Amino acid sequence: MNYIEHVGKYFMMLGQVFKAPQKYRVFQDAVFREIEQLGIKSVGIISFISFFIGGVIALQTALNISDPLIPKMLIGFATKRSIILEFAPTFCSIILAGKVGSYITSSIGSMRVTEQIDALEIMGVNSLNYLVLPKIIAAVFFYPFLIILGMFLGIFGGWAAGILSNMFYEADYLEGIQFDFQSFLIFYALIKTVIFAFIIATVPSYHGYYVKGGSLEVGKASTQSVVWTIVIIVIANYFLTQMLLT
Amino acid sequence: MIEVNDIHKSFGETKVLKGISTSFEPGKTSLIIGQSGAGKTVFLKSLLGLHLPEEGSISYNGQINTEMSIEDKREFRKELGMVFQGSALFDSLNVEENVMFPLTMFTKQTRPEMLERVNTVLKRVDLENSNKKFPAELSGGMQKRVAIARAIIMNPKYLFCDEPNSGLDPSTSILIDNLIQEITDEYKIITVINTHDMNSVMEIGDKIVFLKNGLKAWEGSSKEIFKTDNQAVVDFVYSSNLFKKVREAYLNEK
Ligand SMILES: Nc1ncnc2c1ncn2[C@@H]1O[C@H](COP(=O)(O)OP(=O)(O)O)[C@@H](O)[C@H]1O
Ligand SMILES: [Mg+2]
Fold first, then answer.
1. Cβ–Cβ of A125/B89 closer than 8 Å?
2. Distance from the CA of B248 to the CA of which of A45, A76, A171, B29 falls in 20 to 30 A?
3. Range of the domain at A45
4. B12 CB-contact burial (10 Å; exposed 0-12 / middle 13-18 / buried 19+)
5. pLDDT classification of A14: cutoffs 50, 70, 90
6. Is the CB of B16 within 6 Å of ligand 1?
7. How far is Cα A214 from Cα A217, in angstroms, rounded to an integer?
8. Given an 8 Å threshold on Cβ–Cβ distance, is A119 in contact with B104?
9. CA-closest residue to ligand 1 atom 17
10. Average pLDDT, chain A
């Protein structure tokens, strides 16, 4: 199959996904389950990575601003901006694509190869709606919170790095992170997050749902799906930045 | 009554079904037999609409399944039950939840009502006291029982089984075969079973359809199959030494 056919099949899949749930109660339970699987279980890794990346950004910025004429407050400012604009929404989404993407592809893919999806269909269940819609809702709803948490921890990590390394003053950093606050930028970051969340929920689902063969193919599909999810996020990121910020 | 009229199904270049016609009647167990790779699973899945045949039609009580919209098909599928080759139980649900699944999805019953029905059905398949176990904790035979229970929970009019005996020891196979046969008689449903197991042919099966290379090579009753001169059937049926001896004995008697 060529790329165009995959894109067509992906949108056909979304057509089945976006139908009214057959049983509201079952759907609601599934959404809570997916929030747990895709969201709560990623809080740890996102917190950990955000904190350390925030520290590294602050240190790198401090190292590169050695000119005494540049105000030191810029370290905090630049750290805040990079975290809010790119590191939290994009970098964390890429981490999530790796972690959650492979989970989604392997869980749906193994249901496919063990005929559990056929079993759903035979009962009269819309399997795409049943399996994929709760994942989309969970990711789109939960990831903005996760990314906001990432922003806070990243900025906090920068502060901690300053204190531990003595490379800049706490007061300068605190002044920098409060300087020129623009709520639009947070909004921009959250729009990106929602779109990335949609990609993270649907692209790996596509790879899992249409897998053919056995467990070996499910493994291959998981790797493929992570690569494609990241590629699509990176491309979407470019166009979103161009559309929203220029 | 299920009527199958000249269905063809290919995957890419490979023609798997090359024009098969037959029919299945209520209260009877029909067997689809043939070697591994003959197209039995593809045939069964085509009957169910999981595969779309390129040509031909399938009708259930006069309603042509191959022309239904996906929504109508979903509605219609609530009337059929299927036991998959690998049981296809939902890994993340326990026995009780697996069997209850169609009820939670499609009925407005309360939980105690559903539980009562689940326990009745589990008792019917002789599987009590395993309600809270997960599929991975069950033996192959027990998984098959759960799969049968799940298939009949909604009182289907049609029951399909893909190799219900594969991976089971001979005595468990016979128990599962008998269970399916009894359920068919009891509820007067149409049952279609795929198998390559000659024991099943001896035990159950009011009608037998023999598939070879994507074509129906022979069709008849379980009594006729041991008398036929059709070479393809003879080769298949008497491929085991035991059956060869039985046939020799039978021919000597004549
Ligand atoms: N989804 C599929 N895609 C391509 N080929 C398939 C597919 N399903 C079955 N086949 C091919 O169809 C033939 C018949 O398969 P099957 O119906 O599973 O045989 P069996 O009689 O053992 O159940 C096999 O050669 C198989 O490779
Ligand atoms: Mg088969």
1. no
2. B29
3. 23-245
4. exposed
5. very high
6. yes
7. 5
8. no
9. B39
10. 95
Q: What is the ipTM of this complex?
A: 0.90
Q: Is B136 on the interface with A (CB under 8 A)?
A: no
Gap from CA of B46 to ligand 2 centroid (Å): 13
Q: Is B134 on the interface with A (CB under 8 A)?
A: no
B62 — pLDDT class (breaks 50, 70, 90): confident
Question: A-chain residues within 8 Å CB-CB of B155?
Answer: none
B159 CA distance to ligand 1 middle (Å): 21
Pick from B242, B194, B235: nearest CA to B84: B194
Three-state DSSP class for A169? coil
Which pLDDT value is given to residue B67?
83
Contact of A39 with A142, CB cutoff 8 Å:
yes
pLDDT per residue as tens digits for the range A108-154: 999 999 999 999 999 999 999 999 999 999 999 999 999 999 999 99
pLDDT of res. A70: 87
Count how many pairs of residues, chain A against chain B, have C-beta atoms within 8 Å.
55
Q: Which of B7, B8, B10, B11 to mutate to test the pocket of ligand 1 (most atoms within 8 A of CB)?
A: B11
The tokens for A245 are: 């910020």
Question: What is the pTM assigned to this prediction?
Answer: 0.91
In chain A, % of residues over pLDDT 90: 88
B2-227 to CATH, choices 3.40.50.1370, 3.40.50.300, 2.40.128.460, 1.20.1070.10: 3.40.50.300
Atom of ligand 1 nearest to the CA of B44: 17
